[in-house]
Design a protein that fits this description.
The complex is a heterodimer of chains A (81) and B (408). Chain A is of the alpha+beta class and 81 residues long. Chain A is built from 2 helices and 4 strands; from the N terminus they run βαβαββ. The longest helix of chain B has 20 residues. Classes of the chains: A alpha+beta (81), B alpha/beta (408). The structure holds flavin-adenine dinucleotide (FAD).
Chain lengths: 81, 408
């Protein structure tokens, strides 16, 4: 049986370093390979931190969108024990 | 009669109880107000010393005192754990069946470092977050350690005292150098953050030091599990690190009573206004210190400073000041770098930490604080903290700043 892929939305708006990356870990812990994590953040450092995280852990940043007053980062989980 | 109930007799709860007793002295004596403090036991531990016990061989007994001796005699102390907190009914129930009604509640139940939250961690690691006597097991191990891989790993965020994994790495380096066996030991720090310390300005200070000392820092590490037999730590993304000695910062969660009473989020952190410290949706219940979901360091300094703001808000209600006081988010965490030098990670909600030079004076300040801690809990040294850390509470209605009564 395969699990349906899920989309996990993480709202980190209003929290600053290390807030967004901390929230991302919690979502990653819950996620399975194939899932998509959507991280909403106001911390400008989230962009580069999440990209570096994805490079290091072998996951993929699908898109980074500058929304009105916040950033939306969409991540595909490719690697998870 | 107004009843103030405080749950948790650690740093924040003890400061708050003593400050309130001092401020409301006459009212308590006239029977108009009561201050009741509920604690798990009559022991009070000075937790920052766990590092000294683990990595400098200090005796753990030195840092444990009787809570009842640290309290203002006007505080009623019940050393019996709270079983349930009912915010709707304004009542706290203790393990012995006592039921305490309140007009104002202050929750200061701290955080629990819980190795059982990560598979294999309890059997596979030692730590300095679950009390001074567990920290002493690290020193015992270190004394007999003649070489190999030492890994300091953060198993979950948030955790108490953000600088503590860095401090451990630096103090391990110092320990092995002093014994002349540093070249036989490999030291690694596994951190979930993008750099050696979450705040960039602090990382800039310590990263060159790590390089110079030959300590490897692995970033973006998220712990999955530990195999205690094979002595391997695994990350969620499939990395493996072998160790001979694993010092872990266990995952943390809120206290059992918070989880049981459904007062917190799924990890047991209490949703709290980061400025006023009122628990979300309540105007008669506040939370301070490690127990809250406020995204700043879980540290004694924060618990202490927040206790001052919470006390002002409780006083404002009792005395009718018509003000709500706001905490400015001041943190001031020392980070020891080994060889008698330290820095302070200092910031507020509006001002991130700034880079600074490591110095001996800062290390002396840290150790001085551990000596005055017991005296400071009485609330008699507030003026010293104000001098160093500035005013951390401000009234919202533009009214006058209320200064707490001087020591008597
Ligand atoms: C290794 C280490 C190093 C540290 N170094 C520093 C440092 O250098 N500087 C710094 O500022 N901070 C430091 N800290 C952090 C600091 O010790 C804590 O952040 C601080 O104690 C938090 O205060 P608190 O009142 O919120 O919680 P605590 O002091 O932990 O108190 C919580 C209390 O609530 C009680 N409680 C829990 N459940 C119940 C219940 N059901 N009923 C009644 N009581 C209950 C507990 O028994 C405990 O007494 C360090 C911590 C560690 C572990």
């Amino acid at each position: 049986m395969t699990q349906a892929e899920q989309r996990i939305v993480v709202d980190s708006r209003g929290s600053f370093c290390p807030g967004p990356i901390t929230d991302l870990y919690k979502a990653y812990r819950r996620a399975n390979v194939g899932d998509v994590i959507e991280l909403l953040a106001t911390d400008p450092a989230a962009k580069s931190d999440v990209q570096a995280w994805a490079r290091k852990t072998g996951n993929e940043v699908l898109e980074i969108v500058d929304e009105q007053g916040y950033i939306r980062i969409v991540i595909k989980v490719l690697r998870k024990r | 009669m107004k009843h103030v109930v405080i749950v948790g007799s650690g740093t924040g709860g003890t400061f708050a109880a003593n400050l309130l007793a001092k401020q409301l002295r006459s009212r308590i004596k006239r029977g108009e107000v009561s201050i009741e403090l509920v604690g798990e036991s009559d022991e009070h531990v000075f937790q920052p010393a766990n590092l000294d016990v683990a990595l400098k061989g200090k005796r753990p007994e030195r840092y444990v005192k009787r809570e009842s001796r640290l309290l203002n005699p006007l505080v009623k102390f019940y050393p019996e754990a709270a079983e349930k907190i009912d915010l709707g009914d304004r009542r706290v129930y203790t393990k012995t069946g006592r039921s305490l009604g309140y007009d104002y509640l202050l929750v200061a139940t701290g955080a629990v470092a819980d190795p059982s939250m990560t598979p294999g961690l309890e059997e596979g690691s030692l730590n300095f977050h679950t009390g001074p006597f567990n920290a002493a097991r690290i020193w015992e191990k270190l004394k007999g350690f003649s070489g190999g891989r030492v890994v300091v790993a953060v198993a979950g965020v948030p955790y108490k005292c953000p600088p503590s994994p860095n401090e451990a790495a630096f103090l391990l380096d110092e320990h092995f150098r002093k014994r002349g066996i540093r070249e036989r030991v490999e030291i690694k720090l596994l951190t979930p953050y993008p750099r050696a310390y979450p705040a960039e300005a602090i990382s800039e200070v310590i990263e060159p030091l790590y390089e110079r000392l030959g300590i490897e820092v692995v970033t973006f590490f998220s712990m999955d599990s530990v195999d205690p037999k094979k002595k391997v730590v695994y990350s969620l993304d499939g990395e493996e690190y072998e160790y001979d000695l694993l010092l872990a910062i266990p995952p943390h969660r809120g206290a059992d009573v918070i989880i049981r009473s459904e007062v917190g989020d799924e990890e047991g952190w209490i949703p709290t206004d980061k400025h006023t410290l009122f628990i979300k949706d309540y105007d008669d219940a506040l939370a301070i210190g490690d127990a809250t979901n406020i995204p700043i360091s879980k540290s004694g300094v924060v618990a202490h400073l927040e206790s001052g703001v919470a006390v002002l808000n409780i006083l404002s209600g009792i005395e009718g000041y018509g003000e709500v006081f706001r905490y400015n988010g001041r943190i001031n965490c020392p980070m020891e770098l080994g060889y008698g030098r330290a820095i302070f990670v200092s910031a507020t909600y509006d001002k991130p930490p700034e880079p600074q030079k490591p110095s001996r004076i800062k290390a002396i300040m840290k150790s001085t604080f551990s000596r005055i801690y017991w005296k400071a809990l009485s609330g008699d040294l507030e003026w010293i903290f104000k001098l160093f850390l500035g005013e951390c509470a401000s009234p919202t209605n533009g009214g006058k700043t209320v200064t707490l009564a001087p020591a008597r």
